[in-house]
Automatic annotation (TrEMBL):
E.C. no: 5.2.1.8
A molecular-function term among this protein's GO annotations: peptidyl-prolyl cis-trans isomerase activity
Matching InterPro entries: PPIase_dom_sf, PPIase_FKBP_dom
Protein name stated in the entry: Peptidyl-prolyl cis-trans isomerase
Family: Belongs to the FKBP-type PPIase family.
Enzymatic reactions: [protein]-peptidylproline (omega=180) = [protein]-peptidylproline (omega=0)
One Pfam family recorded for the sequence: FKBP_C
Length: 151
């Protein structure tokens, strides 16, 4: 009898645990897009441009140097925050652009060396359905980035 109960209830427990918290990418994309539009809409001077991947960008200062490509190594200073204004990270890094989050790969090529850009990045182009340090999962990210140099 115990084996029979194990046979009956074990699959039910497994199925029940699999159905919890199913991630719906299209629903999250719609949530992110609405949040981004509400965020940008609060600042009438913002004039951000959508790039087709869901990333919005505003070039604050264009710069005068070359534009990076995915094969470039970029040196940037940046400040990252959540839509609620909470800063989660800032600093200076030198990294291959190809190794950075998709939102940076999408947005930085619009900028020339010496310029500043603000990127509003949906979760799918940031850290997605995963938390990263103090960044909650499914977070829209706002980065202010200065492109110092590239190679």
């Amino acid at each position: 009898m115990k084996k029979f109960l194990l046979f009956v209830f074990a699959p039910l427990v497994i199925l029940a645990s699999c159905s919890k918290d199913k991630f719906d990418a299209s629903k999250q994309a719609a949530t992110d897009d609405a949040a981004i539009k509400a965020y940008i809409g609060t600042d009438t001077a913002y004039h951000a441009t959508a790039d087709g991947s869901g990333v919005y960008y505003k070039i604050v200062t264009q710069g005068t140097g070359a534009k990076p490509t995915l094969s470039s190594t970029v040196k940037v200073t940046y400040n990252g925050k959540l839509l609620n204004g909470t800063s989660f990270e800032s600093g200076t890094i030198t990294q291959p652009l190809s190794g950075l989050i998709p939102g940076w790969k999408s947005g930085l090529p619009y900028l020339k060396t010496g310029g500043r850009i603000i990127l509003v990045i949906p979760s799918r182009a940031g850290y997605g359905n995963n938390a990263a340090g103090s960044i909650p999962k499914n977070s829209v990210l706002v980065f202010t980035i200065d492109l110092l140099s590239l190679s």
